Amino acid sequence: MPSWLHPKIERWLLADQRYAFLFQPDASGELVSLDCETTGFNALADDVISIAAVKIRGRRILASEAFRAVIRPGAPMEASAIKVHQLREQDVARGRTIREVLPEFLHFIGGRPLVGYWIAFDVKMLNKYVFSLLNIHLPNRQIDVSKLYYDRKYGSAPPGTRVDLRYATILADLKLRPRAQHDAFEDALGAAESYLILEDMRERGVRLPRQWAPGGIPLA
């Protein structure tokens, strides 16, 4: 299916016309940096338990206007996931359901492009709820900061170069302060900061230097 045709079909399938704004061209020039924490790592079986999103306007991150929500999941919490995001059963028990949160979230993001670290996973997790509510998937353009980082760091790297796309590595390489990882709000802020730096580098044609081992072997 041609890429230009898919949004038109999704728009036709939209079950609630009150959400037609998702398909309207965004005139604000803003982006939204997004992160979700989940009960596990299976997009089909697990649930979202927290969402955070911050708008990016020009070179500014509007952290004071952020969207933040803790969500009461339908799936059990995996011990491995609790160790990652530090949200316990009792923490999310006080949250709202995803069906209560989702309309507010959709109005917050509108038709803006979505920025994030491995953003495809977050969108995939959200899409199962969006589809249940509206019979569509999020049509927003996705911008992955790990891809932007790869392009600036490894885009011209020779074969065999060791590639490190870990979130902490990206923040450190961009001289950003470490943030509490696997906290949705902190991760959304970190992705927004990374995006602004990497986008500025792209516009100026600047690349990140790679380390080299003795003998001229590229390490990273």
Rg (C-alpha, Å): 19 Å
Portion of residues in beta strands equals: 15-25%
Helix content: 25-40%
Number of helices: 8
**Secondary-structure-derived class:** alpha/beta
Q: What is the chains' assembly state? A: single chain
User: Can you tell me the CATH class?
Assistant: Alpha Beta
| CATH superfamily placement | Ribonuclease H-like superfamily/Ribonuclease H
What's the main sheet like?
Answer: 5 strands, mixed
What's the number of structural domains? 1
The CATH topology turns out to be Nucleotidyltransferase, domain 5
CATH architecture: 2-Layer Sandwich
What's the average pLDDT? 87
| Uncertain parts | none
Order of strands in the sheet with most strands: 3-2-1-4-5
Q: Given the C-alpha coordinates, what overall shape results?
A: globular
Number of strands: 7
| Secondary-structure element order, N to C | HEEEHHHEHEHHHEE
Q: Could you give the distance between the termini? A: 38 Å
